[in-house]
Design a protein that fits this description.
single chain; 577 residues; alpha/beta; 6-stranded mixed beta sheet; 4-stranded antiparallel beta sheet; 19 helices; 63% helix; elongated
């Protein structure tokens, strides 16, 4: 828990003031029964109005102080817990942003969302509760116990018997509750992942008429969460009645024993009233402690899950880079005997001894069957992953020696899965260059063949996009992503099958714009269609993670059997169509 202290220190005054003010409330709660007992024992029997008024005024003053203490304590505990949670959430999100693709692969998206929201909220709630009760509960317990013993030591024996029994019960409760709450958070992860996948892919679900199956999958996850939650909350449900029964039995025992003492003149009625109140306060303080412990068991499970994010070692950093000031200037790319695999314990490589060069201004096409390693290859250039063997060099410098910021600023990438964000088209395009002028944005959109359809929208560039760009077509989404990358003016432009959803005529115009506007930019194009790379300066043919052919279209037709097979296959499909 030491790592969480950094989120306490900036707000330490709030963490100190909250329990101090709660002490004021506790003092009032402990003193008030004694003042009432004085009125009953002395003021009323003696018909002493002045005494009753004085005691009443003291009780009123004490009530005001209790109110101020309670309100102040609640305010500062809220300030402390909310600030703690906000700072923690910020750091956790920042850490996730630093994750490499390999780090992200270890967590499901739903799990990360749950940890950044629900789990941190659990910590916020327990801090808020603890600051209000951590001092108040033991303070009330000790204060009420002292006052009860002072009033009647013989009756206090009853309390001494009950407290150890309840403490043992609380320890058993916590031991039982912790693993159940931990499992509950895991089930919540699964449910969130299910919901996120369903809502993100709702169009696919509807197009395949899979609503029933998705409902059943959700029902199963929801049922698991229900069963696990009930298992955890049964502990909570059982705890409160036990505490209540203990309180009532203790109160009954005290009243019976005190009644006998009153009959023989060993105790006054006012003292019985005060003693009964103190017994209730003692048992309420134990109930408060039980609530804190129960919520703590869930919060501890959440804290452990958040720590897994904070303590994850980011396996891709530039801390040891020797040329952090270097920037990409020409866009020269070289692979030297590169081997790569996603899982280090696997024997087979996804990329096996890859070597090639892409010169500045060249267009290099990459083609191959699905799963051959094309995307994996280009992801090594901006260091989305690191190679296991060999070197990837940009401008003659190993990519591991660049700062990640400078390296990725020099590389524009349109991923295989096109991603747009909620906001306007203008907002999305400015991801390429936040300082770009309107003219520059329109020019980039025009080169990407996107300006025409953007202009057809009522709001044009101020058109709001739904989450993930759901209100534009696949081809439009691809062209927006290309425009965004072009606006970046990269020295290396990577297009990962990014024109698959546009027609061949539009694709041709995009390629022509590349050749005219990006003459000095190294362009690496992954494609499924031969027509997309046919005019490239060089084409790499990838098969099972190896380069099996390299050359121009004409050279590969003559010398590469795999390339010829792809050409023949696509020609047959076109003929059939």
């Amino acid at each position: 828990m030491k790592q969480y202290m950094k989120y306490v220190k900036p707000y330490l005054p709030f963490f100190i003031l909250a329990p101090i003010l709660m002490v004021v409330e506790v003092v009032g709660e402990v003193v008030m029964p004694k003042l009432l007992a004085n009125i009953i024992n002395e003021g009323i029997p003696n018909m002493d109005t002045g005494y009753i008024v004085r005691m009443g005024l003291m009780m009123a003053g004490m009530a005001i102080l209790m109110m101020l203490g309670g309100v102040g304590g609640g305010f500062f505990s809220a300030k402390a817990s909310v600030n703690f949670a906000a700072a923690l959430r910020k750091d956790a999100f920042t850490k996730v942003q630093q994750f490499s693709f390999a780090n992200i692969d270890k967590f499901s998206t739903g799990s990360l969302v749950t940890r950044l929201t629900n789990d941190i909220t659990q910590l916020q709630n327990i801090i808020n509760m603890a600051l209000k009760m951590a001092i108040r509960a033991p303070g009330m317990l000790i204060g009420a116990l002292i006052m009860a013993i002072r009033l009647n030591a013989s009756l206090a024996v009853v309390i001494a018997v009950v407290i150890p029994v309840l403490v043992i019960a609380l320890v058993l409760v916590m031991k039982t509750a912790f693993p159940r709450f931990q499992m509950m958070q895991k089930k919540l992860d699964r449910l969130n992942t299910n919901v996120q996948e369903n809502l993100t892919n709702i169009r696919v679900v509807k197009s395949f008429v899979r609503e029933k199956e998705e409902y059943e999958k959700f029902s199963e996850a929801n049922g698991d969460l229900y069963d696990t939650s009930m298992s955890a909350f049964k502990v909570v449900i059982a705890t409160m009645p036990i505490m209540t029964v203990a309180m009532n039995v203790t109160t009954l025992a005290v009243v019976w024993l005190a009644g006998n003492q009153i009959l023989v003149g060993q105790m006054e009625i006012g003292d019985l009233t005060a003693f009964t109140t103190y017994v209730v306060q003692i048992l309420i303080s134990l109930m408060m402690t039980a609530m804190v412990i129960l919520n703590s068991s869930r919060a501890v499970a959440s804290a452990k899950r958040i720590s897994e994010i904070l303590n994850t070692e980011v396996d891709l950093t530039d801390e040891t880079a020797s040329q952090k000031s270097a920037v990409v200037t020409t866009g020269h790319v070289e692979f030297r005997d590169v081997c790569f695999k996603y899982y280090k314990d696997h024997e087979e490589y996804v990329l096996d001894h890859i070597s090639f060069t892409a010169n500045p201004g060249e267009v290099v096409g990459i083609i191959g069957s699905t799963g051959s390693g094309k995307t994996s290859l280009v992801q090594l250039i901006p260091r989305l992953y690191d190679c296991d063997e060999g070197e990837v060099l940009v401008d003659g410098i190993n990519v591991k020696e660049y700062s990640l910021k400078h390296l990725r600023e020099g590389v524009g990438m349109v991923l295989q899965k096109n991603v747009l964000f909620s906001g306007t088209i203008m907002d999305n395009l400015k991801w390429g260059d936040e300082n770009a002028t309107e003219e520059e944005i329109i020019a980039a959109a025009d080169r990407a063949q996107a300006h025409q359809f953007i202009s057809s929208f009522t709001e044009q560039y101020e058109t709001e996009l739904g989450q993930g760009g759901v209100n534009v077509s696949g081809g439009q989404k691809q062209r927006l992503c290309i425009a965004r990358a072009l606006l970046k003016k990269p020295k290396i432009l990577i297009l990962d099958d990014s024109t698959s959803a546009v027609d061949t005529a539009t694709e041709k115009r995009i390629r022509e714009a590349f050749s005219q506007e990006l003459k000095d930019t190294t362009k690496i194009i992954i494609a499924q269609r031969i027509s997309s790379v046919k005019e490239a300066d060089r084409i790499l043919v990838i098969d099972e993670g190896k380069i099996v052919g390299e050359g121009t279209h004409e050279e590969l037709i003559k010398n590469c059997e795999e390339y010829r097979e792809i050409c023949i296959s696509q020609e047959e499909k076109e003929a059939d169509a």
